[in-house]
Amino acid sequence: MSVFTLTLTLAVSINWPGPLPVDARPPIGRWSTLRPMNAPHEYHAAVAVNGKVYAVGGSGRITLEEYDPATNRWSLLPGMPTPRDFLAAAALGTTIYALGGATREIIACPNVDVFDIERRRWQSVPDLSVPRNRLAAAALEGKIYTVGGMTDRGNAKTLEVYDPQTNRWTKKADMPTARHGHCVVAIDRKLLAIGGYDEQGPTPKVEEYDPAHDRWRKRAALPTPRGFFGAGVVDGRVYAIGGRVRGQPPVERYDPRTDAWQQLDPMPGGPRNRFGAAVLGRKIYVLGGELQDDRSLPRSALCFDLSPHVP
Fold first, then answer.
1. Which secondary structure element, helix H or strand E, spans residue 280, and what is its range?
2. pLDDT tens string 28-50
């Protein structure tokens, strides 16, 4: 047999594997369970500041807790001056902003309470121009943005921005879709409003706001319409987690460079919603929330680790 014939025979006999089926691909990231919070938290918000994570507000008696990943411990902090649920939260520097929400007496609160982490004390800044609950918020380039939510008349399109240098709120271009129970994240010097509930129910709509031009535009729709979920940005991509849908929704990842979503494995446990989510480094923390017939869930905390060394 010639050398040419032998080489050809070997090449034909090798069975080169094709692309792995989706179900056979290794999972992205790893989930772990953290020490439970000291108190139950539902309808609350969460932020991460200086290496620690905070559960802010909600329906429970305790309205502020701090989690230290280095010790896996929770600490109670001074309570909010105006306890409320269905609020939003964002942070600038070492300051946490608790924005809007609802109380038993007030459907839509204008309150903005500010917690100084270093001094361990609360103070108030000017109210929102449009009182809202079930709103979303994000910090971007030294300012706080509040987006959408519900007023006492229904869903809102309102976008307001707070500048701590002037201590003033300024209204900007309305979001195209009035909604509540949505998420807003800051990415690539823009804001991304994701999902939530519009007048027809759970919406897949994703809209991007450009502060430089005070302009909105449509982006690729969320594959699984959902509300009251969590979202965070890790390594330039957005992760949508949990939410109020039938069954157990997948984690969905958005890449702004391709304007495309990818479905990943779901969060462990049942279909958790109305929780707080915050990003610290390459980890997304999911705090408390609501799940029918699970009394332990409002105190529970999970971590979704997306570090490069994690499968």
1. strand 276-280
2. 899 999 999 999 999 999 999 99
